[in-house]
Amino acid sequence: MSGINGRKTNSVRNPYGNLNSGNSSSGSVHHLSNLDEFEGNNHLRRLIRNGELEEGFRFLETMVYRGDIPDIISCTSLIRGFCRLGKTKKASKVLEILEESGAVPDVITYNVLISGYCKAGEVDNALRVLDRMSVAPDVVTFNTILRALCDSGKLKQAMEVLDKQLQKECYPDVITYTILIEATCEESGVGQAMKLLDEMRNKGCKPDVVTYNVLINGICKEGRLDEALKFLNNMPSYGCQPNVITHNIILRSMCSTGRWMDAERLLAEMLRKGCAPSVVTFNILINFLCRKGLLGRAIDILEKMPQHGCTPNSLSYNPLLHGFCREKKMDRAIEYLDVMVSRGCYPDIVTYNTLLTALCKDGKVDLAVEILNQLSSKGCTPVLITYNTVIDERSGVRPNAITYNAIMLGLCKARETARAIDFLAYMLAKRCKPTEVTYTILIEGVAYEGLAKEALDLLNELCSRGLVKKSSAEQI
Is residue 157 part of a domain? Predict the structure, then answer.
């Protein structure tokens, strides 16, 4: 049925009851009767901008119930917000309300919902939205769905969607073909992917460097490195210059097959052509040299990075540390840990786990614990694997209360007292009896987090059970 002003009467419920009755509740939403459509949309925008999505949803329902037509952009933002939270059903409901209001969603609105479904792994729902769109889908719509299908290994279904795209006279772009070429390389090999490349060119769609990088990566994965090099050299004749990623793909393949001399020549050729190497370029080389035990040459590469405008990161140092640890050169490993920090490169959890594992296997548990307790001051929060490294990899030496206490002290200093308490349970499960120091550390940790009353209550409870002496309690 048609309503006032030719607007479609809809079945959207009013979540606030009859707003025109004298029993309306107070609050901004309940004064909707005093707002016109323009002010209502402004209010809806404010709610969404402030992240009040649920309130925005209820307000949207009320607007449409009154016969107001909501703003498309605001509703699209609301759909995007729900999708980001993984609430795709709620996002879909917003679209339904929007359609029922008499408003016509644009292609961006549909694309946002389709993208939300695809990111949530709900490709079937995305396809259903595609089939019922009230406006013509664009190439972004199809690319989003094709990417999701290809990422989940459904190339055949993706090709069917491509046929549907062509039927709708929505012509594929370079992104469309690159998505399909990458999936074809994975599923059917580079030979089939090359046929798609030919089709792409025949249809007047020019491949870009990303397209060629995908093909070169596929050729390298098939072990045809010389062919990949030939492809690289031919790229300028195709009207496309290789970039640093192109070279990195081939460098990685050279290193993985032990062709170090070729890798050095390729790096020199990159520099000659003015293609600046990236941190990834150097990390590939450092990783290879360290795996081969050529730590001195790896250090040379590391030291040259700043000359090329690259700052080493933790992935530059980690292979070196691992190499030193493998050769039981613990002093050198600790020395390079200090070098990292002095240069403003903070170790990540892989750095610490590498070093801690080696120290514990070498029987140097006290040093491992000392390093573990420096984690928080170095900007690296410990994780369970780090503690397990110290506790479980002691070359058969059973950890004692001192080891556990040191770890709990580190956690408490990092304001991770809840995890320290969990670690107490782990300690008990390992049949290691806590000491008075164990409990004292936990009490001080609770107090350090600003829970003085709780800390005092815990202290009194432990004193009453005889786990902490009164003389010790007076010193806390």
Answer: no
